[in-house]
Structures are given as structure tokens and as C-alpha cells.
């Protein structure tokens, strides 16, 4: 008992209740912004608008949003290092400990080192099949693989719903939380400005602008976050000091007869008890791999970056670079979150609902302010403004990726389903107008985000992902590796997985997790069956249904699977049957800036044809063409021979031996580093 009291520090009593009073309002200690900080923010926005229209991209930045900085650091503050395993594993994560604080990593949050393994699987396994198939969206691949249109339409609509109500809402909420605390701007004004600026250079530049802007903002995010990490470690006494002070980071005001205020004893371990752990190690290794596979290998936002590579070697190199970058969030986001808890236990680690309400406006806890609090307290003038720009960069980078991928999905998989003969110009206009629609929906969603408490919002987002992603993972794995899978099997497998996932989701929302100190009356299937275990079970059940139904139906002819599976990806192009292009765009009809791998956007001039001079047009028409990404030159119809040559170029998965060996060696080195880190922190 005496040791526990000593660990709790001065003012502890025998019943575990601290007698001192925490500050009632954290805003009193807020550090204001200097003129230099504001100047940095303004210069950043001007630079992004001036340069972002032309510059491109990284898998890391597509996966990192403001939710990563806010949520991942907050979860690290609440539960320790284990959430870094989420970041090393996937894109979206949730830790279900006593506090119920959740993070988006991918860890958008969480998700989230299987990220390393799955990024390499993307470059070495999935992308070769996608390129060989000549697709630009994931629903389009499923249509080519199985035929029919119901799976394609279902996947497109499901993806758009997830983008609007989970990814966009998460980034907006996290960015607004940071802006409110750091800048004191009006929530609607600041978020609206960010969305408008993001939409402008997404609309004006297309995928190329998003890709190059992502690369620029990756450098900003990594550089600024590393500076804050070193300042934080210096202040806390480096890693040994963090271990000591984090374990003693107990708020002055606690809830009687509970242990919610105590830091977890396994906070510095990645692998935790399979039954009582908040993140059980079997779920972290196996269950999270299911979600990570969906995130990194089948999600349009991520895969589109690889499909825009110049060649398969470029795509592999991008996966290797992304794998190296995904190692960093454990050190420059999770650990700074823990440092913030160690330095500000009364604010970041508050547990009393009334105290938390006065500090951050949320009764469930304030761990989500861990990163902004550290920025505003430790960063010097100028660098503080840089870090604000970093968070804004994360928000805008993630939103640009989502806006662009959503417009591609809508134009190709939804709009062309109804307008089968839509021209390239029509697809460009529809895709970019849809970006405007997304912005409007996002702004209308802000009041709901503001009225939701932070823990419940992240809980909702991660629950939706966990219950919808496993069936998609099972479908893509079987589609690529099992030639016997048929369209009825795939469709009814998706439907059965969706039904089981919705049932669990309804139960979880009907029986919310209790707050600290309350009795847990939830059914055993909820409180004793971790959601990561459920994800693994759901993936297995979906796979079983797909296989059984497929075996009971007529198999797909072998010749129709050419270049659509892992086993047939190298079949000669001459064996391809001429596809009826109903619902599937010609290569020449793909919107500019959104072409698949193998050379990016093809130039008609390379085929030896001269472009006729465009007629003079009014300023209004020129502005409209600029908005829609139209060159103004008349479209040129390609001959059958030219189409065949272009298709062969865009679907080639051949590699130069030198660069193939370079990528393979770097992949092995990356896996070795990854295994060492898991062993060290396990």
C-alpha cells in the first residue's frame, strides 16, 4: 500500500482519491500565438495554393490525417505504447480500455508493423494484379473479375458512405479540435476555410496535384513532429524519464473506488494479455491484419496512389518508402502523447466528468488534447506556427486524397453506370462537381461532429469500419487467389458478412460501454468478445459463405480470368477477350490525372498525331475549362491498333532487373527493422 501511495505522489489518500484540486479551466494556462506564428500559418497556406496545384505524393500522407495527430497521441496518453502497434498495423484503430478513448491511425489513425507487411503485400501482390487487369478503381476490378454490376455498385456506394461519414468527419473533428484550442477561431469559419482551400487545389489539379502536394506536406509533418518529439523528450528526461513520470501521471481529482486514473501497468508493452488486455495480442497480430489488409490493399484512397505510378517498380518503391515512414508515428506521435500525459496529468489525464468538462468540453476525458497541449506549451515562437501548419497539412492532405478518390469512384463506377457513353469531358466535370458536393456535405456534418462527444464519435467511426471491412478483405483475397470463386458466391458472401456485422453494430450501439465507475451491464458477446476477435471471425465466416456458394454454382470459364488473378497475371495480352465496355471505361475515357499505372496519363502526341489548334474562346469558357481540368483541344478517337498499344503499355507489369533487385533488397531490410522493433517493444 505504501508503495502505491508513493507512486501516486503527494496528496494521495488511502482510498485512492487525491485531495488537491485540479485547475478548473485549462484555458487560463494557454499559450497565445505570436505574430511570427501567425505569419508561418499564412505563408504556409499561400505556398500550398501556389505550389500545391502542380506538385505529388506519398502513401504515408494519404494515410495520415489530423485524426492521427489528435487521436493517436490521445490514445497513447490514455493507454501507452500498444496503439503504436495499431499504427504499425493498419489505418484505423480503436483501443477499448477503461477510458474508451479511440484513435484513427493506419492508424488514419491507426490505420494503424503489419502496415509494413501489408504495404509490401500491396506492392508485390495486389498492385501487379490490378495493373495487369487494367483497372483504376477497386469496384471496377470486382466487375471485371466477376462480371455483373451489383457488386461494383454496392462497393462504390459503400465506399462513398464510408468516406463521407467516417474519414471526412474524423479529420474535420480532429482538425477543428486543434484549431479551437490553438487558435481560438470560430469552428465553422475555420473548418469551412480549410475545406474550401482543400477543394480548390483538388479541383484545379486533379490526382497529380494531390500526389505532389501530399509529398510536400509529408515533409512538413515529419519535420515538425520530429522537432516536437525531441523537445518533449528533453523536457521529460528522455525515455527513462518518460517511463518513470508516465507511471506517476495521476490527476489530482479522481473518481472514488476506481482505477481509471491509474496509468496501465503494461503501458510500455505492445503485446498484452489475450483476455484482460485492452488490446489483446492475438487480436493485434491477427484480427488487425484483416482490417489492415482492407486499408492498405483494397481501399481506393491508398491503392489509387500505387496505381498512378509510372511502373510496377515505382509502385514497389512507394510501398517501401511508405513502410519506412509508417515506423515513425510510434516515436513522433504516440510517445509525445505519453509525454503530454506525464507533463500535464491534471488536464490530459483527467477522469472526473465535471473537471474534464471544464478543461476540454468533453465529460468522457481530455486525452485528445494531448498533442495540441504539447504544441502550445513546448514549441517556441515560429515553430509553434509551423506545428499548427503541420496539423492543417495533415487535415488537408487526407481530405484531398479522399475528395479525389471519391470523385473517381463516383464518375467511373456510379455515373458511368447510368451514362454508359459519357465522354471524357463529361466524366471530368461530373467528378469535380462531386467534390463540391462532398464539401457541402462535410460542412453540413460539422454540427453533428460538434454535438458528439469525442470518445463516442471515434467509437462510432471505428465500429463502422470494423464491422464493414472484414467481408471486403475476404472477398478480395479470394478473388485474387482463388479462381473458383464466382459472382453469386462473392455477392452472397458480402451480404452475409454485412448482415452479421450490422447485427453486432446494433448490439454495441444499443448497449454502450459504461463510464468509469459504472457497472457493465452489457451482454457477454460485447464486453468479453473483443472487436478485433470479431473482425477475424467475420472475415472467416464471409470466406466460408463465398466458397460454399461458389462451389454450388457454375465456375467462371478459365479464359475470362486472364490477367485478373495472381495465377493469371502474366498471361499474354493477346489472350484477353474483347470486353463489352458496358459500365467499364475505355482507357481513353479515364479522367485526366487519374490513369492507372504504366505511364500515367497517356499523351496522344506520342502516337504520332498532331493536335489541331484550339479555337479562341471567351474568358468564361476558359475559366470553366480550367475548373473542369479540360485542355480545350478536341478529343481524338484512337484507332484499334493505337488502343491496343496504349492498353499494352498501361497494363504492363514488366520490371527492369536492376530496380527489381533494389526494391527486393529494400523490402527485406524493411522487414528486418520491423521485426526488431516488434521484438524490442513487445
Automatic annotation (TrEMBL):
It is found in: Membrane. Residues 1-21, 596-615 are annotated as: Disordered. The chain crosses the membrane at residues 33-55, 67-86, 117-136, 157-179, 185-212, 219-239, 279-297, 318-339, 386-415, 427-448, 460-482, 489-511, 531-553, 658-681. It is a multi-pass membrane protein. One of its GO terms (molecular function) is D-glucose:sodium symporter activity. The keyword Ubl conjugation does not apply. One of its GO terms (cellular component) is plasma membrane. Its main location: membrane. It comes from the Eukaryota. Keywords: Glycoprotein, Ion transport, Membrane, Sodium, Sodium transport, Sugar transport, Transmembrane, Transmembrane helix, Transport. Belongs to the sodium:solute symporter (SSF) (TC 2.A.21) family. This is Solute carrier family 5 member 9. It comes from Theropithecus gelada (Gelada baboon).
Amino acid at each position: 500500500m505504501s508503495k502505491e501511495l508513493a507512486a501516486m505522489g503527494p496528496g494521495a489518500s488511502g482510498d485512492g482519491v487525491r485531495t488537491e484540486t485540479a485547475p478548473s479551466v485549462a484555458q487560463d494556462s494557454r499559450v497565445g500565438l505570436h505574430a511570427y506564428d501567425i505569419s508561418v500559418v499564412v505563408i504556409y497556406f499561400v505556398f500550398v495554393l501556389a505550389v500545391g496545384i502542380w506538385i505529388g505524393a506519398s502513401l504515408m500522407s494519404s494515410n495520415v490525417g489530423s485524426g492521427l495527430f489528435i487521436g493517436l497521441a490521445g490514445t497513447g496518453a490514455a493507454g501507452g505504447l500498444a496503439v503504436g502497434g495499431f499504427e504499425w498495423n493498419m489505418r484505423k484503430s480503436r483501443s477499448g480500455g477503461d477510458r474508451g478513448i479511440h484513435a484513427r491511425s493506419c492508424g488514419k489513425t491507426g490505420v494503424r508493423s503489419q502496415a509494413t507487411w501489408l504495404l509490401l503485400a500491396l506492392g508485390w501482390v495486389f498492385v501487379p494484379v490490378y495493373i495487369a487487369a487494367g483497372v483504376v478503381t477497386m469496384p471496377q476490378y470486382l466487375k471485371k473479375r466477376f462480371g455483373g454490376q451489383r457488386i461494383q455498385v454496392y462497393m462504390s456506394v459503400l465506399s462513398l458512405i464510408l468516406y463521407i461519414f467516417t474519414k471526412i468527419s474524423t479529420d474535420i473533428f480532429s482538425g477543428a479540435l486543434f484549431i479551437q484550442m490553438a487558435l481560438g477561431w470560430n469552428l465553422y469559419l475555420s473548418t469551412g476555410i480549410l475545406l474550401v482551400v482543400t477543394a480548390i487545389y483538388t479541383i484545379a489539379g486533379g490526382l497529380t496535384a494531390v500526389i505532389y502536394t501530399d509529398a510536400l506536406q509529408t515533409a512538413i509533418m515529419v519535420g515538425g513532429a520530429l522537432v516536437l518529439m525531441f523537445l518533449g523528450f528533453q523536457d521529460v528526461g528522455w525515455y527513462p524519464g518518460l517511463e518513470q513520470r508516465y507511471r506517476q501521471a495521476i490527476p489530482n481529482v479522481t473518481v472514488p473506488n476506481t482505477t481509471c486514473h491509474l496509468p496501465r501497468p503494461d503501458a510500455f508493452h505492445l503485446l498484452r494479455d489475450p483476455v484482460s488486455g485492452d488490446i489483446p495480442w492475438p487480436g493485434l497480430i491477427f484480427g488487425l491484419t484483416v482490417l489492415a489488409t482492407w486499408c492498405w490493399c483494397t481501399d481506393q484512397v491508398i491503392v489509387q496512389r500505387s496505381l498512378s505510378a509510372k511502373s510496377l517498380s515505382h509502385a514497389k518503391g512507394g510501398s517501401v518508402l511508405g513502410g519506412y515512414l509508417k515506423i515513425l508515428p510510434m516515436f513522433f506521435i504516440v510517445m509525445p502523447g505519453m509525454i503530454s500525459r506525464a507533463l500535464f496529468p491534471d488536464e490530459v489525464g483527467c477522469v472526473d466528468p465535471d473537471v474534464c468538462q471544464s478543461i476540454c468540453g468533453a465529460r468522457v476525458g481530455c486525452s485528445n488534447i494531448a498533442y495540441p497541449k504539447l504544441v502550445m506549451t513546448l514549441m517556441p515562437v515560429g515553430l509553434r506556427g509551423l506545428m499548427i501548419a503541420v496539423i492543417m497539412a495533415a487535415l488537408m492532405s487526407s481530405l484531398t486524397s479522399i475528395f479525389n478518390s471519391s470523385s473517381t469512384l463516383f464518375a467511373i463506377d456510379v455515373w458511368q453506370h447510368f451514362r454508359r457513353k459519357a465522354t471524357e469531358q463529361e466524366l471530368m466535370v461530373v467528378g469535380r462537381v462531386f467534390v463540391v458536393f462532398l464539401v457541402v456535405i462535410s460542412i453540413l456534418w460539422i454540427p453533428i461532429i460538434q454535438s458528439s462527444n469525442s470518445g463516442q464519435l471515434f467509437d462510432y467511426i471505428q465500429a463502422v469500419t470494423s464491422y464493414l471491412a472484414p467481408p471486403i478483405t475476404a472477398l478480395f483475397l479470394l478473388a485474387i487467389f482463388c479462381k473458383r470463386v464466382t459472382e453469386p458466391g462473392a455477392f452472397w458472401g458480402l451480404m452475409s458478412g454485412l448482415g452479421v456485422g450490422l447485427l453486432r453494430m446494433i448490439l454495441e450501439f444499443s448497449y454502450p460501454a459504461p463510464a468509469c465507475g459504472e457497472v457493465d451491464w452489457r451482454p457477454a458477446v460485447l464486453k468479453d468478445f473483443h472487436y478485433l476477435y470479431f473482425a477475424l471471425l467475420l472475415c472467416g465466416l464471409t470466406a466460408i459463405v463465398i466458397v460454399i456458394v461458389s462451389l454450388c454454382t457454375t465456375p467462371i470459364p478459365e479464359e475470362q480470368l486472364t490477367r485478373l488473378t495472381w495465377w493469371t497475371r502474366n498471361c499474354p495480352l493477346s489472350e484477353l477477350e474483347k470486353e463489352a465496355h458496358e459500365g467499364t471505361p475505355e482507357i481513353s475515357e479515364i479522367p485526366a490525372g487519374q490513369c492507372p499505372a504504366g505511364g500515367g496519363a497517356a499523351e496522344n502526341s506520342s502516337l504520332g498525331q498532331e493536335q489541331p489548334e484550339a479555337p479562341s474562346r471567351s474568358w468564361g469558357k476558359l475559366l470553366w475549362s480550367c475548373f473542369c481540368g479540360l485542355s480545350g483541344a478536341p478529343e481524338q478517337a484512337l484507332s484499334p491498333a493505337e488502343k491496343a498499344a496504349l492498353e499494352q503499355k498501361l497494363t504492363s507489369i514488366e520490371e527492369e532487373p536492376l530496380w527489381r533487385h533494389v526494391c527486393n533488397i529494400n523490402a527485406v531490410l524493411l522487414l528486418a527493422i520491423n521485426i526488431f522493433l516488434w521484438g524490442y517493444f513487445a
